[in-house]
Amino acid sequence: LDLRITTNMTSVIPSTLYGYMWEDINHSGDGGLYAELLQNRAFQGVLPGTQNALNAWQPYNGARLSVTDKTSGVTSALPNSLQVQFPKTVFGPIGFENTGYWGIKVQAGWTYNGSFYAKSDTLTGCITASLRSTTGTTFATATIKGISSEWQKFTFQFEPKTSAPDTNNVFHVEVNGPEAAGQTIYFGMFSLCPPTYLGRENGMRIDLAEALASTRPSVWRFPGGNNLEGESWAERWKWNETIGPIENRPGRVGDWGYPNTDGLGLLEYLNWAEDIGAEPILGIWSGTSIGNYSDLPTWPIVPEADLQPYIDDAINEIEFITADANSSEWGALRAKYGRVQPYQLRYIEVGNEDQFQPESYAGYRWKAFTSAIGERFPDLQFIATTYPSTALDPPYMKIDYHQYADLTWFENAAFMFDNYPRNGTQYFVGEYAVTSTNASDYLGTLDTGRLAYPSLAGAAAEAAFMTGMERNSDVVFASAYAPSLQHIRSYSWTPDLITYDAGGIVRSTSYYVQQMFSVNRGTHVLVTTPPSTNDTAPLYWVASHNNETNLVFLKVANTGPDDLVAYLHFDFNVTSLFGTAVQISSPVLSPLTGQFNITNTLEEPENIIPASSSFSIPYPDRYNYTFPATSVTILAFEAA
Ligand code: AHR
């Protein structure tokens, strides 16, 4: 292939092109990015008196545990408490333990900030809290005194001197058994937090945060996804119940099979987006939920006449985020919760996947939300969440398009945006991933082709598609791989960008492709001859120029089973006779069956990782390069 990179610039590449979609799925928030170590810390979203309500808690030496709402809770938002009853006769210490999110990482040198609320009418002795292994090794201890009949918050710190060899550790609470015999203590709102990303209070788990941040995402779509919508209207994600002290957040029944603490709330998400330099794309609830309504003719949708309170709620949310702290009540509340300066907010997404309820969306919901919010906040841009449609009034200018599919779909779709009308409307590819090798069952099970982890071949297919997004970034203004995170011990969706357990993480092939595309950004698309088309498959490419760094990038996906050589010609002279390459390809040189399905796993996290290299360029205007079978490569050349 003779491939010429011209100096002809076409579109400006928007700064928002690469990023992530976020929702609490697969314990991506609670038990994932949120640094909190104790699971079910405040008994939110559970039914008192049930065994399920004690999830992650276990008795120690015969204490009787139950979750109750029969005593007043720590706050009105948290009516449930842990009731700990001690038998009449006790030998030795007695208490209970929290097993964390399937384990707890104990790291020497870290300071763990702990707290809980406790009260007892009769027991006044000490409480000992510790971090210990399931085999009884204690790593750190704190003594808590002063318990009384009123709720009090007790705080403590753990500073383990040695690291635990594994994550089979628990948060352990005990009292002196003979002293406590026959008595009862109530506990509420526990917390145990290790150091967080950038030291933010109530912040993010460092390894996951650093991994996401190091891809330099530039958009952060939140809070869902299905998890915005709720199992019912009442269970939707309610922004005003996710702000302020964690004791004021009731939590909710999430859409992905576990209660959400909402410890990661609106302000935490906005701070996080700012910390990583990503632009927030805020999803607002649009009047429909996603529960199991299989016995109903259609999903219940808020009738037009009843929509106003939800529109008002969205307006209040936006005011809370953007208003001046001195002149707005909502802005003042934000300041009270620690953030005086308004946040930058440009994009509002109205709903999630409303193509499933198109009549009411086009009929009144889209119009009602966009016109009322637009009147109040005229600078905001709205993103519609339905299939491209001429039925929306007012017409959408931006639309969120989702695609999960097999590899071949993504390769074929590398050119889908080339013919998109240039009429001012733009795409946000708000969720996408290769999910399967099976075109007819791309959301099926592992035994029918669903991927457990992203594969090399899948990531190469995504890269082929991404060359098309970037080449057409005049009409694709943003994109978001989804889902981002997966706790290997409890999940409902594969594959995911990063997988982890209580101790470690693994970056997937798709993660590396996202990172390669995002970190190596041009400011303008460059025309190539020939252009990348169906005829040039299985080699897919896009060229760009960064006019700040004077680098020319050539991003290439080879989705085929053979190495392919390209004779590169430049319509410019490189100013350095060194180029650089970053490449992800199979570490196995001779083709072996299945080698392109290779994945990184928690057990083998570095099966396949990108390699960087530099090379000298013999002539300033040409270079030959071999793109290995099933690979993604980004070449960079310096050119004025
Ligand atoms: O990303 C997982 C789910 O897929 C999202 O919650 C939903 O928007 C989509 O259907």
Description:
This protein has 640 residues and is α/β, with parallel strands linked by helices. Helix content is 17%, strand content 30%. The protein is built from eleven helices and 32 strands. The strands form six sheets. It has a nine-stranded mixed sheet. β20 (426-436), α10 and β21 form a beta-alpha-beta unit. α6 (308-322) crosses α7, α6 crosses α8 and α10 (456-471) runs parallel beside α11. The longest helix has 19 residues, at 358-376. It starts with a strand and ends with a strand. The model has no long low-confidence stretch (mean pLDDT 95). Residues 23, 25, 224-226, 352-353, 402, 431, 482-483, 493 line the site of alpha-L-arabinofuranose. Alpha-L-arabinofuranose is lined by residues 23, 25, 224-226, 352-353, 402, 431, 482-483, 493.
Instruction: Tell me, rounded to a whole number, the average pLDDT.
Output: 95
Radius of gyration: 27 Å
Beta-strand percentage range: 25-35%
CATH hierarchy, class of the domain at 52-193: Mainly Beta
Structural class: alpha/beta
| Total count of helical runs of at least 4 residues | 11
Distance between the termini: 26 Å
Indicate the percent of residues in helices: 10-25%
Number of strands: 32
Q: What summary fits the major beta sheet?
A: 9 strands, mixed
CATH superfamily of the domain at 52-193: Galactose-binding domain-like
CATH architecture of the domain at 52-193: Sandwich
Oligomer: single chain
What molecules are bound to this protein? Answer: alpha-L-arabinofuranose
Low-confidence segments, given as residue ranges, are none
Provide the CATH topology of the domain at 52-193: Jelly Rolls
Q: Given the C-alpha coordinates, what overall shape results?
A: globular
Domain Alpha-L-arabinofuranosidase C-terminal: 430-631
GO molecular function: alpha-L-arabinofuranosidase activity
EC number: 3.2.1.55
Organism: Gloeophyllum trabeum (strain ATCC 11539 / FP-39264 / Madison 617) (Brown rot fungus)
